[in-house]
Amino acid sequence: MEKVNISKHIGKMCQQYRLKNHLTQNQVAELTGLEPRHISQIERGLSKGSIDTLLKLCDAYHITPDIILYDLLSEETKKEISIYEEKFKKLSKRDKDSILYFIDYYLSK
């Protein structure tokens, strides 16, 4: 696997999911109890924060930490993981709810 800057990757993913959830950095700060400045530093790859910080951000974005960290895994490991499961996990909460609604609808027939 090509060497990846872990801090930049985590920052990019956090920003991506913040935007998918239509949140500002200030709104994320309110949800997590973190300083907006710290969220900005994480998104710019200047800090990757602690595991506690990652969990707070994941709660705010309605995702699990594996979504943020998935691309840091080796290609061999990625192949062992169901592609559809991972794609689903990367969706916004709204998109997940829509898909689950249709699945429930078709399964209830």
- Structural class label: mainly alpha
Please write the CATH class name: Mainly Alpha
Biggest sheet details: none
User: Quick one: overall form?
Assistant: flat
| Mean of pLDDT | 90
Oligomer: single chain
* Content of β-strand: under 5%
Please, what is the CATH homologous superfamily?
Answer: lambda repressor-like DNA-binding domains
Spell the H/E element sequence. Answer: HHHHHHHH
Count of runs of 4 or more consecutive helical residues: 8
Separation, N- and C-terminal Cα atoms: 45 Å
Task: Describe the protein in words.
The protein has one domain: lambda repressor-like DNA-binding domains (434 Repressor (Amino-terminal Domain)), CATH 1.10.260.40. Helices cover 68% and strands 0% of the residues. The chain has eight helices and no strands. Helix 1 runs parallel beside helix 4. It starts with 5 loop residues before the first helix and ends with a helix.
Q: Which characteristics define this entry?
A:
109 residues, mainly alpha, 434 Repressor (Amino-terminal Domain), 8 helices, flat
Helix and strand arrangement:
Elements: H1 6-20, H2 25-32, H3 36-43, H4 51-61, H5 65-69, H6 75-79, H7 83-89, H8 93-107
Helix pairs in contact: 1-4
Offer a quick outline of the entry.
The chain is mainly α.
